[in-house]
Specification:
The chain has 458 residues and is an alpha+beta fold. The protein has helices at 13-38, 40-48, 57-79, 205-212, 252-274, 281-306, 381-394, 417-431, 433-454, and strands spanning 8-9, 84-86, 91-93, 97-103, 113-127, 130-146, 148-150, 153-160, 175-185, 192-198, 200-202, 220-221, 234-238, 241-246, 308-315, 318-325, 328-335, 339-352, 355-366, 371-379. The chain has 9 helices and 20 strands. Strand 18 (339-352) and strand 19 (355-366) form a beta hairpin. Helix 1 (13-38) runs antiparallel to helix 3 and helix 6 packs antiparallel against helix 9.
């Protein structure tokens, strides 16, 4: 855990805007130096192979970095340091993560603030091209608060309850865990958007019991159903039970991102590999097919996210799941006596700028050990838990959890011997496909190579 002795936690904004400017200067210096020195050669390269038009994006990227650096600088001088004060300090997994922050913002300009607490696993991998950092969000909770008036400014009082099974903050290394709190407020002009790294420990029972006596003050909580994320799912109570409807296009942002990526891969592959069609044609074609398949998979995943809906109906008799995919209806029913529990799991995340979003799904566990997804696209752990509780309540007070028959959960159906043989054979061929294609292309080039060598050795 980072050695922090004060309960006042500062963000890294001051360091970040300098990093933005250094990167902006470096990127634009390299880009414009290449453009100036390249001159007519760059234009000729465009004529030879249109794939080089992709490099025309580099100056636009440089402009975008300058705009981002300018916004970060203005935000820093507009809001100042704005530290968070933690109480209790440090925060605890299985206990309380609470505190407050004062911001120089007029209350009428900030009707709501979005706070998200993230548990992150960060690792550094060594490769041939150098070290690369990988971050995985293990858990997230998200709340929306109405700021309190405080001395001609605003104060946000917040409280989270991190689950006890999550790791605590650790010292920086090649493989460690950390906790981040993101505060985002939409404002006229420049938004407030900062990230704070919080010290969170695994406390003993004495510390937890002492913290439990702290009455954490929180600003007015805006319920999920009154925010944008509250539209998923649409809950309807009828005489026959409760319906949870997850409509079409509920993950449209991710869907459009996947489809744009697929278009980029396909267009880039078309122009790039067309320049090598006369040289190693089989290898080039195989590589192009591989990239096209990746692009197709991304496109179909995007289409799937848009064109599927999920309806879960729950009553005293049990659960009915209806999922429409590309217009086809898939239906499944589970009797109440076969339901063990409904659990929430993380099933996706995305990061844009400083904001990270984590989506949770709800899975129904049956006595046979089957996991059936009955809810998705739920932002934040607390919202997923709220929908889970509503689903369990819809089963009625008479419902009793079934006993899990663990002896069936690991049952596997053996693959037929002949099928296993062919699967292994296909796997071997695919693993050596590029090498085989390269050998074949080299074989076709032997006559030309022999003719070329014969000119020097008659």
């Amino acid at each position: 855990m980072t050695n922090i002795t004060s309960n006042q936690i500062f963000s890294q904004s001051a360091k970040q805007y300098w990093q933005y400017w250094l990167f902006a200067i470096f990127w634009n210096a390299i880009t414009w130096y290449a453009i100036i020195m390249g001159g007519d050669n760059i234009l000729k390269a465009f004529e030879v192979n249109p794939v080089f038009y992709f490099f025309a994006l580099f100056p636009l990227i440089g402009l975008w970095i300058i705009i981002s650096a300018t916004k970060e600088t203005l935000a820093w001088y507009k809001f100042g340091t704005t530290p968070i004060t933690l109480n209790p300090f440090p925060a605890q997994v299985g206990g309380l993560c609470a505190g407050y922050i004062d911001l120089p913002i007029l209350a009428q300009n900030a009707p709501q603030a979005i706070l998200s607490l993230n548990c992150i696993h960060r690792s550094i991998h060594q490769g041939m091209d150098g070290d690369s950092m990988h971050e995985e969000v293990l858990w997230q909770d998200r709340i929306t608060l109405k700021p309190d008036n405080y001395r001609k400014s605003i104060r946000l009082n917040f409280a989270f309850k991190p689950p006890a099974d999550l790791p605590a903050s650790e010292e920086k290394s090649d493989n460690y865990h950390l906790w981040k709190l993101n505060i985002h407020i939409v404002l006229p002009g420049i938004n407030y958007d900062r990230v704070f790294e919080l010290p969170i420990i695994t406390a003993d029972q004495h510390t937890l019991s002492k913290s439990s006596r702290i009455q954490a003050k929180t600003s007015t909580l805006i319920e999920h159903q009154n925010t944008q994320i509250g539209s998923i799912p649409k809950i309807t109570k009828t005489t026959t039970g409760t319906e949870f409807y997850y409509g079409y296009g509920r993950a449209k942002t991710m869907a459009f991102t996947l489809m744009l990526c697929s278009a980029f891969f396909a267009i880039f592959a078309y122009f790039f590999f067309s320049g090598f069609s006369d040289f190693l044609p089989t290898t080039t074609s195989l590589m192009a097919i591989y990239v096209y398949l990746i692009a197709l998979a991304l496109f179909l995943a995007g289409v799937f996210l848009i064109t599927n809906s999920l309806t879960t109906k729950i009553n005293l008799m049990g659960v009915s799941k209806q999922q429409r995919i590309f217009g086809f209806l898939l239906e499944e029913k589970i009797a109440a006596k076969d339901i063990v529990d409904i659990i929430s799991e993380k099933n996706g995340s995305s990061t844009y700028g400083k904001t990270t979003k984590v989506w949770f799904c709800l899975k129904l566990l049956t006595r046979e050990g089957k996991n059936i997804e009955i809810g998705d696209s739920l932002e934040g752990q607390s919202y997923a838990d709220k929908i889970r509780q509503e689903m369990l309540s819809a089963l009625g007070l008479s419902w009793q959890a079934a006993a899990l028959e663990t002896q069936n959960t690991n049952k596997k159906h053996p693959i037929p011997t002949w099928l296993g043989f062919w699967l292994r054979l296909v796997g071997k061929l695919l693993s050596y496909a590029f090498f085989i294609a390269f050998i074949y292309d080299t074989y076709l080039l032997l006559p030309e190579a022999s003719e070329f060598i014969s000119k020097f050795f008659p």
